[in-house]
Amino acid sequence: MSRPSDLVQGTLDLLILKILALEPMHGWAITQRLSQISSDVLRVSEGALYSALHKLEHEGWIAAEWKPSENNRRAKYYALTRTGRKQLQIETANWTRLSVAITHIVQLQRS
Amino acid sequence: MATQSRFPRVLLKLRTLFRGAEVDRELDEELRYHIDRKTEQLMTQGMAPADARYAALRAFGGVELRKDVCRDARGPWAWIWIARLVQDVRHGARMLLKNPGFTAIAVLSIAIGVGANAAMFSVADGLILRPLAVPDPGGVVVVGTTRPTGAVRYGGISYPDYVDLRDRVRSFAGLAATRTVLASLTRSRGEIAQGTLGAAVSANFFDVLRVRPALGRTFLPSEERASGGDAAVVVLAHDTWATRFSADPRIVGSQLRISGVPFTIVGIAPAGFNGTTQFLPAAYYVPLAMLPVIDAEAGADFLQRRANGTLDAVGRLRPGASVDRASEEAALLARALQQQYPDTNDGKGLLVRQEMDARAEEAWSVLVLAAMLISLAIAVLLVACANVAGLLTSRAPARAREIAVRLAIGGSRSRLIRQLITESALIAAAGGAAGLALGYAGIQSFRAFQPASNVGVRFTFALDGRALTVGLGMAALSALLSSAIPAWRSTRIRDLSGTLRNTATPAARASRLWGRHGLVATQIALTLVLLTVALSFYRAFENEYGRGPGFRTDHLLLVTLDPALARYDAAQADRFYQRLQDRAATIPGVSSTALTSFVPLNQDGGSAAAIVPDGVELPRGTTSLSVATARIDERYFTALGIRILDGRGVASTDTAETSPVAVISSGMAARYWPGERAIGRRIRVLEPTPRWVEVVGVAADIKFRLFTPTSTPFLYLPRRQYPPARATLLVRTEGDSLSAAGPVRAALLETDRDVPVLGMYTMEAYYDANAKNMNRVVVRTIAAMGAMGLALALVGLYGLMAYAVSRRTREIGIRIAIGGKPGSILGMILKQGSWALIAGLVVGIVASAAVGRFVQGVFPGTGADLVTFGLVVPAVAAVALLAACVPARRAARIDPLVALRQE
User: Fold this and answer.
1) Which residues of chain A make contact with B30, given a CB cutoff of 8 A?
2) Rounded to 5 degrees, what angle do the CA atoms B605, B863, B877 make?
3) B728 strand-pairing partners
4) pTM assigned to the model
5) I need a labelling partner for B578 at 20 to 30 A (CA). Which of B158, B627, B723, B851 fits?
6) Are B453 and B769 spatial neighbours (Cβ–Cβ below 8 Å)?
């Protein structure tokens, strides 16, 4: 497969929360970070990223603030909120469970 | 470290909802930032600037589309709210469709309640409540005249008095004068004249009421007092314009004839405006100055005469002026006028009232009737709501488990309540829609109820905006009433695990049952009140008409004519009647004819005469008595079959040349000369010129007006001595009276085609319309509401019993299994229901007695008596027991094996 795998539904939220847990970031920086840490395996549609950001903001998990960016232009920085941090834990746990389960199933089929 | 959100969530949502443009601008900026950075990145990789930008945009995948997706992600509150509502409505509809029986009964209950309210309100509105069709009707005031006796009359103002009021009472911003007139309205000379109601008004009439013409103009100040042809202008009512002139806009400027006099049409009044007199819609408006020209009775000195005022004064107050202040000023003015013009204004006081207040004061009994109809309709709605509430409560245990499950998995209580209310709202919406249809049908049936009026007296009942608003408001109210309490109670589950295991505590069960017993008892009580009121009205009407009106109603044709409208004087009119009677007598099948100025039970109002009976002491502060009177010819008593008890009737020899005589009703004889012979007594009749008349006969009492005792004094005067302007020709026929209508009309046209026919009825139709229909409609309406209440209460009682039985199926099964007899089971269940029944009956009897006393005070002759109770109470009790028996019998036939296996 030459195409990078599509994201499993719902995991984009997890990834965003995880990235923002490190430091507040604007949308552009998040796309850069995503491709960087996943070594280009995961490619997020840039548009989808922004709708996900807006959804998370309205869930109250992340909060936005306009700040001058590294190139001195105003950019919208997103940061994790307290509830967002809890949500990150929940989603991480979910993901771990899910991936363990899927790994199990996949291995069962192989053996 | 977690950042504290700068906007708490709620603020964020509110910002999205109310500052959408700002949020959109920020989104734009955010996305532009991204695209710019991407472009920069691609340029550092060696792309040309234009290519880089294009690639960046492409990578993003449609910026505008993305913006929409982001907006959706934001999900403004309103959308979420609507989405939840849709979810609730769907869920509610599913629940309702799952229980079609429950839904049907609930919807039907609400439909009956709402329909009754819409119909009753529209009737009450048509009878009295509807405000004038003018801007700010609440600001309209009217002037009343008072007498030393304390009697108040709204109207009765002379033109000079009106001018003084208008110019000297400073509280008035404007005061207009109006008077109902009756004249023929024709377009050409050849047309058969038809009497039509109109209004003679002051020039400022439309301006004061703030009514703007739909077309053309209203009156000029100069036209109010101008004499002769200068003021021969007319403004047509919108209805008249639409029906008689097919809404032709070119009609303005053309001519028509009123009482045969040519008038120029200068304007068209706006649609819906029919003047200021209830039930007497004006078809046209003419300046006051023209009144003597079209109505000879008004008198040529009409604008100068202070005595015998006939005008109504309507006005508006200056900003800041109060009705009380205006009334005080008017009273002061009245005192000044009394001193200045003692001959005409002695004892005449003036007062000012808000128009609606005056209406209520003048038609107090109509207002009470309206209030009563509306109260009854509200009672029906309450019974319906109690039903739906009862049904919802009885479903509560079934739903308690569903609700407990949802509460257990974390459903919020407010959301659950909201959902239950949504369900009730759906019932109310369906019920409301069906109810408005019912109401419309009801209103249509009321429309058939119109008095047999010669001149266009009419009631307008319509499912208009006002009635619709009331209906919809009632539907909303019923949704709230019937759902709030059951919803509150069913979500207040204390013992969650108990409910889940379906073992409700006995205490909870008992309190729920107690509530339902209360509801059913209330329903029965309200029903009892409805039925006793209906029955007492029916009995009152039966008393009124059971013995008949006292005169013959068969084989008679009534033709009402007004030669004065063709500007005949008294002598000409007399010759006209003579010619017409001679001609009518030759028609085959006509046995005789008679003339009278007044037909009994007339709804257009009869004429009254001011009299002073000889030797009778008048009440203090009065100079004369007023009695109803008819001006008749020698054949009147025979034609109507009214017996002469003493002396003689009117004779053909009682003419202008002989000494004046009168025949009085036996009630009048008994009132003024009790225990003595009335023949030979004298009565001073004050109008048109005061003179003594001698009583020559006493006639049997007849019913001459609705709701008036037959013994009320009535005075008959010979037509030749007191010529009437308007008269009705009574044509006695041998065969069917209707078949004489054609030949009589032909005879009339041959005699004089200019004399307008005001109306032609058979006496049967006339009597039906004026006496029986009214009776029927009122009784039927109240009885229908009683029946609806009873039906609803029965459904409620049945529901209660069925519910109780279903709750006790297991217990009953055990009782039967251990040898309980079906009879004792039946008794046990019935006993449970009979508490509600007995309580309801007791409360109902007490309430009915109280309501009955009140109704009796307003409509003498009605009121709940022992006979009424004797009929209603056992009937309600029997029917209610029957409704209770059905589920009780089912309980008695329970198969213990099935019952015990059930849970």
Assistant:
1) 26-27, 50, 75-76
2) 135
3) B560, B596
4) 0.61
5) B627
6) no
